[in-house]
Design goal:
This protein is an all-alpha fold. Helix content is 75%, strand content 0%. The chain has twelve helices and no strands.
Length: 244
C-alpha cells in the first residue's frame, strides 16, 4: 500500500502525506485539540500569502517585464497583492471564526485580541502551525528555489495562483462547523475528516497540473474560438494555477 502511494510521487507530495499522518497522530494521542487543527488551517492562509510574496519577488527579479513596462511597475504589483490577498483572507477568516465562536463558549464573537491568545493556547496549536510552516518552507526550497520555478513564470498568472487553493481550503474548514452545530464541541472525527479532505485536495490539484490532457480541456473551455493562438499561454497559466 505505502509503496503504491509513494511510487512516482514527488518529494513534496510525500511531505504532504507525512504531515497529514503527523497531525492525525497528534489528534489520536490527545496531543492536539481538534479546534487547533481548524484554526491552524485558517492561519495557514496567512503563511501561504507571506511565502507567496517572496516568490513574487523572485518572479519579478528573474523575468523581463512586458514590453513598454519597467520592473518598478511589476514590483509595485506585490503590495497590491498583499492588500487584496489580505482583505480576501481576512474577510473569509472572520466569517469562519465568528461561526465557530457562536457555537463554542471558549471563544468570544467580539474579535478582541484575547481571542487570538485563546487560540494560541489551544493544546497542540503551536505544534500544528510549526509543522505547517516547515512543510511550506520545505516546498518553497525544494520545489520553487531548487527547481528554479521562478524563471520564465508569468507574473500575472502567478499573482492569482494562491486564490483557488485558499478558497477551497477555507471552505473545507467550515466542515467541522456542522459537527459543532449538533455536538458540544468539534470532535476528533471532524478534525480528521478535515485533514483527509485537505490532503485529497492537495493531491488532486497536483494531479491536474501534471495532466496535459485535463489542462488542455480546461484551456479550450476558457479560450475564445476566435483566438486559438492563446491556447498555449492559457495552458501554462492553468498549470501554474493548479500546481504547488
Amino acid at each position: 500500500m505505502f509503496k503504491t502511494l509513494f511510487q512516482n510521487q514527488p518529494i513534496i507530495s510525500n511531505s504532504v502525506f507525512l504531515q497529514s499522518v503527523f497531525l492525525i497522530a497528534l489528534l489520536v494521542l490527545g496531543k492536539a485539540d481538534p479546534m487547533a487543527i481548524v484554526f491552524a488551517y485558517i492561519f495557514e492562509t496567512v503563511i501561504i500569502g507571506l511565502i507567496h510574496v517572496v516568490k513574487l519577488f523572485y518572479v519579478v527579479a528573474y523575468n523581463d517585464p512586458e514590453k513598454g513596462k519597467s520592473k518598478i511597475i511589476d514590483y509595485c504589483s506585490i503590495p497590491f497583492f498583499l492588500i487584496h490577498y489580505g482583505a480576501f483572507v481576512g474577510i473569509q477568516s472572520i466569517i469562519i471564526y465568528t461561526g465557530f465562536a457562536i457555537n463554542d463558549d471558549r471563544f468570544s464573537t467580539s474579535l478582541s485580541f484575547s481571542n487570538f491568545i485563546d487560540i494560541l493556547n489551544l493544546e497542540g496549536f503551536n505544534m500544528v502551525v510549526f509543522s505547517i510552516i516547515v512543510s511550506h518552507l520545505f516546498s518553497f526550497y525544494f520545489y520553487f528555489l531548487k527547481e528554479k520555478k521562478y524563471k520564465n513564470e508569468n507574473l500575472g498568472a502567478y499573482m492569482v495562483k494562491p486564490y483557488l487553493r485558499i478558497f477551497i481550503q477555507q471552505f473545507l474548514a467550515i466542515i467541522p462547523f456542522f459537527f459543532l452545530i449538533f455536538m458540544d464541541s468539534v470532535s476528533v472525527l471532524a478534525a480528521v475528516l478535515l485533514i483527509i479532505m485537505r490532503t485529497i485536495l492537495d493531491f488532486y490539484l497536483a494531479a491536474i497540473a501534471k495532466n496535459p490532457d485535463k489542462i488542455n480541456k480546461l484551456a479550450k473551455r476558457i479560450i475564445s474560438k476566435n483566438k486559438p493562438e492563446e491556447l498555449s499561454d492559457i495552458e501554462q497559466s492553468l498549470k501554474v494555477f493548479f500546481e504547488e
